[in-house]
Amino acid sequence: xxxxxxxxxxxxxxxxxxxxxxxxxxxxxxxxxxxxxxxxxxxxxxxxxxxxxxxxxxxxxxxxxxxxxxxxxxxxxxxxxxxxxxxxxxxxxxxxxxxxxxxxxxxxxxxxxxxxxxxxxxxxxxxxxxxxxxxxxxxxxxxxxxxxxxxxxxxxxxxxxxxxxxxxxxxxxxxxxxxxxxxxxxxxxxxxxxxxxxxxxxxxxxxxxxxxxxxxxxxxxxxxxxxxxxxxxxxxxxxxxxxxxxxxxxxxxxxxxxxxxxxxxxxxxxxxxxxxxxxxxxxxxxxxxxxxxxxxxxxxxxxxxxxxxxxxxxxxxxxxxxxxxxxxxxxxxxxxxxxxxxxxxxxxxxxxxxxxxxxxxxxxxxxxxxxxxxxxxxxxxxxxxxxxxxxxxxxxxxxxxxxxxxxxxxxxxxxxxxxxxxxxxxxxxxxxxxxxxxxxxxxxxxxxxxxxxxxxxxxxxxxxxxxxxxxxxxxxxxxxxxxxxxxxxxxxxxxxxxxxxxxxxxxxxxxxxxxxxxxxxxxxxxxxxxxxxxxxxxxxxxxxxxxxxxxxxxxxxxxxxxxxxxxxxxxxxxxxxxxxxxxxxxxxxxxxxxxxxxxxxxxxxxxxxxxxxxxxxxxxxxxxxxxxxxxxxxxx
Length: 636
Hints:
By secondary structure, the chain is α+β, with helices and mostly antiparallel strands. It is 47% helix and 24% strand. A five-stranded parallel sheet has the order 2-1-3-4-5, sandwiched between helices. Helix 13 packs antiparallel against helix 14.
């Protein structure tokens, strides 16, 4: 069933864009253009989540928030704010708004805010279900206990209890087999304190004393029989616990802890007494074994080469090993996200909460901060800790420090960008250089001096650009920042097309352009960005050549402006891509060209777009072609 969300905004454009995003995220969207209309829809549809603009004519977002919280405090409300609305957003949080996001609405921030809101709704529902189940279980157990009490009372009144006790005495005479499995000394004595039966361990330690007085094994007053544990039980009718001195077969004296329990007859009189002796040495041995085991586990816990914590459902740290304490400071009793990051709320997609939810182990990679403020990259694994009933009572989190590994990966990525930028940038310019040389040769063959001059001019220009690119890449090897300059977006778009046009013509692929005349200027590093676009445009041509199913192929290069940047689109009707290929398209060293590709081109292209603060994406269907869309801001 799709989740309902009420979207409230007086601007149709915003409602349309945000509504599409919400639908893509799996929400059923209810729309309202004003606070009054939203309140009416809310009362009728009762959506669990409301996304509302904070400034609207008539009833604004804050007033709508007050009405919604008054009617249903469990409804989560996310406020959409504009510039200068920070004070109103803070006021909304005080009125128990779940979160706020700023215009223009970023799809990633919207998804995060919606995830937080839905997590709160799900957690609240689970708590409510838990409380209802708990109340039901309490009532059920209460009724069960009452029923047991009734059964016990009825059983005590049954005349056959006397016969059962007689049977018990017969079993005693034949010795209970279960007594032999107990790790302590067990005997059953009658009202005269004579031993009727003993277990095997009793017989091995003290000899076969059946028929003899049970108190004879004790020292002091207990050995007289008047103040023995069994005598006190016969006198009071209550079980006893005491420390006594015990004589062994060789007259050695040792300490034991004695427990007694009365066995009643049908008339309520104490007929027999169960006596259990636990040797102090055995208790000490078990305690020593337990202490040793605990020490070993504590040593393993502390000396493990990773950060280990045990956390409860509130993400409060119950225990932490020594390495964790060294890196993050004293943490026991603190909240995980505060100790790790100094944050006020759990991390998005917290693996601990996921393990509490499904009982499975989860893994994630995070950047946290040590007690000295330095960033620490960690890979986290979680494991559920269950009690005897199989319920999850805690989660153990193990985090491995991969900071140095991340630095090496960054270094390798930079090295890859260096090599790929050089190879792909020069490759694009050499493609255009082939076109210039082609013009020179054609001019010589036809005797057209103007064509020869044009070709040589093109060759000279491209050689100069190659030289400049090599120098720029060498500078980049020294971590040079982007060399931004203000230039015409249309000029750069035409340069990209001119660089690939000769190759497309030679391979029989039609290359068309749709460049808007009002693209305007933007601030970019021409070498880095144009090399990235040339690479994508060449890939589109290659995709058409690889497609043998169509008679003709076309690549379209489009460029259009928007209020804050420039959109570029490269679309082809080539062979297209499978979904798994599309998902890994921008991964380093991933190539669809086998040995003919380096696997760096699109990775470098994305890095170039990211460096400019832009966005890049692709859509594709097998056999139908692909489309790459790039947005570059006018200023970084």
